[in-house]
């Protein structure tokens, strides 16, 4: 609660006389509205806008240094995760930033309220005319042609010179809403008829050649069926866009696919932003049911929480993406692993906003939370298959402080799923932990796809698992689902089970995974070297020996992971 209330408490009589001539500096802009949006006209000047300001973290570079320090196996501080208070102290805005913003608010007669416990985010309401004046903006009405979704946005805005370095961004301004809301990043459920592969390993049920069930994953990745023992080791599964996880369907799923455990095994519910979890059968969400069935049904005995984010967003058009992270940051004991199967194209979010969200993942990572996201289902064309001339990186997979999970299919050989999104961020450069892996890949790739992707960007995904033909129970019936949405919960479950063994041995959970995955973890991953992720009228990136932007470093082997973490 570092800065809560400070905006009132530290209001001091600064504004003697008129503010000096304004010196506004361009802060963010975009050349035009995103594809699909058209300008309708000026916004009503008296229309009220709810704006949010993001203040700069007081010492993010130190937070980042500590994140790597506690997440890198060879570091002396490996596993010594930061407390809530330690993280808050590094990110709560400094007094100089608070003072600068407060005096600007006062000069402009604005009353703001703090909306995050570190004081990083504040909000206030002003009419369009005043917002245009304050930020030298042109707030206008834009309409999305296909859906009719309307939004008031500006193509550029400026901030006073004296706030530079103190104010990260104003939102919503140049980031447009996702007209389709955050689409679940899985493809439409499809019933597969094709044979997937021939299995040679005797332990793998032959049924796995047509559909994937928990038993298949257990056999392919050496996942134990015995129950976890550590109640402190929690697994969080996020849900958005009114996707509800149905308990009756989970019971049916467990009765069918986990006859070895109690079919009453279930999850707990956490809600925010007015979220709920309707148990009406027809409201069961394919995405939510997939995510909960392949966590509760694979991470045997790990206490699992379904975090349902409603539509009453505090973060504007981020649709709860930031709210859920802030809610977990406020907890003293957040889950050790968090899996999310939603996302969007990186270009739909302004760089400043994307960085602010990514920095929130770093905070949670420093607390010892593994954050996993599905990489997307459009191959190199983005979160969903789309036409394009340049490759489209997805968000948040480009953020270096989380773990992006792609998809594979088959065994002998396990090969890349063609929809598995992967590529290189335009917002973040290559982090140290993957620089060797990425440069090895780019050398092997040669000129293929050159000019279509950003060779200096952070590469994704980091890892992968099976993602084709997962059997999911939805409103009583079994559907087969494809997507990286299958892969993120699967990888998260395996990490949760590794954490259970670590905690039982008196050690810390893995926390932010990537520095481990790209070093000691490599030996515990099955390298996937065939398949590719076509899109944008190309064959996409080919999977190759070592890391590749289709399957990452590869798929997990639970037994080898235990060895890699020293158990
Ligand atoms: C905004 O202004 C228009 C006329 O310009 C007026 O009709 C409308 O009532 C005003 N709305 C508010 C909320 O003041
Ligand atoms: C950030 O923290 C480090 C380590 O405590 C310190 O050396 C540095 O001066 C701090 N930077 C700022 C801007 O406060
Ligand atoms: C599977 O094995 C059968 C018999 O050995 C063979 O005819 C078939 O081509 C194989 N299928 C694949 C996909 O390898
Ligand atoms: C490519 O990535 C780098 C590193 O993140 C970034 O600075 C640069 O702006 C990107 N280039 C384009 C064209 O987006």
Automatic annotation (TrEMBL):
GO molecular function terms noted in the UniProt entry: metal ion binding; serine-type endopeptidase activity; tripeptidyl-peptidase activity
Pfam families in the cross-refs: Peptidase_S8 (PF00082), Pro-kuma_activ (PF09286)
Principal location listed in the UniProt entry: secreted
Signal peptide from the UniProt entry: 1-17
Enzyme Commission no: 3.4.14.10
Alphabetical list of SUPFAM superfamilies matching this protein: Protease propeptides/inhibitors, Subtilisin-like
Reaction catalysis annotation: Release of an N-terminal tripeptide from a polypeptide
Superkingdom per UniProt: Eukaryota
Keywords: Calcium, Glycoprotein, Hydrolase, Metal-binding, Protease, Secreted, Serine protease, Signal, Virulence, Zymogen
Record carries keyword Signal: yes
PROSITE patterns, sorted: SEDOLISIN
Positions bound to Ca(2+): 527-528, 546, 548
Gene Ontology biological process terms in this record: proteolysis
Known cofactor(s): Ca(2+)
InterPro entries (alphabetical): Peptidase_S8/S53_dom, Peptidase_S8/S53_dom_sf, S53_propep, Sedolisin_dom, Tripeptidyl-peptidase_I
Active site (catalytic residues): 287 (charge relay system), 291 (charge relay system), 485 (charge relay system)
Recorded GO CC terms: extracellular region
Cofactor note: Binds 1 Ca(2+) ion per subunit.
Domain Peptidase S53: 211-567
Subcellular location: Secreted, Extracellular space
Keyword Nucleotide-binding in record: no
Positions of transmembrane segments: none
Role noted for this protein: Secreted tripeptidyl-peptidase which degrades proteins at acidic pHs and is involved in virulence.
PANTHER family: PROTEASE S8 TRIPEPTIDYL PEPTIDASE I CLN2, TRIPEPTIDYL-PEPTIDASE 1
Name of the molecule in the record: tripeptidyl-peptidase II
Organismal lineage: Eukaryota, Fungi, Dikarya, Basidiomycota, Agaricomycotina
